């Protein structure tokens, strides 16, 4: 469900303050409607709803979570309440990040959808930072910032970023461009995120191949 007009405009002002001139895909994101949530309450496991029943869910979105050790990709739900962010697997809360323990949020200057939620190393309940990939990254980070009420927590990086694997141990995410989109663990043990450099065909055109040349033809109108 889309936000009401006034709420959406307020959110997009924050989006502009956070990302204008810093992250690719910003202009396209502003032209798309923001949603109240990307997850219906009926799609959240009743056990999870019971566990956080004292807090009202403000926003939810499907994400891919990358394990801090090994970077295995796992489907998760990312839920935001007034007090905390939750990474949820079916009926389990895999990580709760109270806003008071949230140290910052990092994302790249490219349009890859990766965000890292940094937690305070002093918080003994935290195992490490959360590495997520989100299709609606501008919307999700904006919602998070407005709930945390600290606009200076977002860091847009170029090239690479460091994150906490576990207390006292750090890992690296490297951002690059290439012929196709990829996310993989490289030979150095780093998570490498590659953004595709080619441009998609314009709407109304579809690619076909003629000999060794790639051309475009218009869709037939029925």
TrEMBL record:
UniProt protein name: Myosin IH
Write the gene name.
MYO1H
Please give an example of a GO cellular component term from this record. myosin complex
Residue ranges occupied by any TH1 domain in the UniProt entry: 23-197
- Pfam families per record: Myosin_TH1
**Domain of life of the source:** Eukaryota
| Sample GO molecular function, one term | cytoskeletal motor activity
